């Protein structure tokens, strides 16, 4: 059973974190009437209620995915309330290139790759977080020196990243 408890008009966060969006009123929560497809009430029993925001399959910039769940018990002729805390379920990667790197190389093009095979291009002056699925993570840079000599460098290789972790790489 899945329940989206975020109003339809707030599908996208424009800037900032989910917590900030809640504080400023960009996201509004509502009461949800849990019924089956025919409109009949759900049977008495124990259930897991899940809330989420974003697309868990998407990776890249502005692709944060939050989820949370809680167990509830439906009793006869009683309202059931539940509080769900949603946490970020992605890995965040931020790359910070020093001024020296930015000036020394005429080309410094980075690519982050997760275990899904998705490749995300990161510009040397872009410090936005990239959101990836947990698992393996590689970061490579195609560089070219001022004398025209170029090569590909492996900057990072992690076998197992964890959700809710923010990896900040400084080069």
Give a structural overview.
By secondary structure, the protein is mainly beta. Helix content is 7%, strand content 40%. It has two helices and eleven strands. It has helices at 18-23, 99-104; strands spanning 45-53, 60-61, 66-74, 87-88, 91-96, 105-114, 119-122, 130-132, 137-145, 150-158, 166-170. A hairpin with a 4-residue loop joins strand 6 (105-114) and strand 7 (119-122). It is elongated and about 80 Å long. The model is unreliable at 1-15 (pLDDT under 50).
Topology:
Elements (H helix, E strand, L loop, with lengths): L17 H6 L21 E9 L6 E2 L4 E9 L12 E2 L2 E6 L2 H6 E10 L4 E4 L7 E3 L4 E9 L4 E9 L7 E5 L1
Parallel strand pairs: 5-11
Antiparallel strand pairs: 1-3, 2-8, 3-4, 5-8, 6-7, 6-9, 9-10
């Amino acid at each position: 059973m899945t329940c989206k408890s975020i109003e339809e008009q707030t599908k996208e966060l424009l800037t900032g974190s989910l917590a900030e969006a809640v504080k400023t009123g960009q996201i509004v929560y509502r009461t949800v009437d849990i019924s089956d497809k025919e409109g009949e009430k759900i049977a008495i029993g124990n259930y897991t209620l899940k809330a989420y925001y974003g697309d868990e399959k998407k990776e890249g910039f502005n692709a944060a995915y939050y989820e949370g769940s809680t167990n509830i018990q439906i009793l006869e002729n009683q309202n059931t309330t539940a509080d769900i805390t949603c946490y970020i379920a992605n890995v965040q990667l931020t790359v910070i290139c020093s001024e020296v790197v930015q000036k020394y190389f005429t080309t410094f093009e980075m690519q982050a790759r997760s275990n899904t095979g998705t490749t995300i291009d990161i510009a040397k002056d872009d410090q936005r977080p990239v959101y990836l699925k947990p698992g393996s993570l590689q970061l490579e840079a195609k560089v070219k020196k001022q004398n025209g000599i170029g090569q590909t460098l492996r900057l990072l290789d992690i076998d197992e990243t964890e959700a809710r972790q923010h990896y900040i790489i400084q080069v």
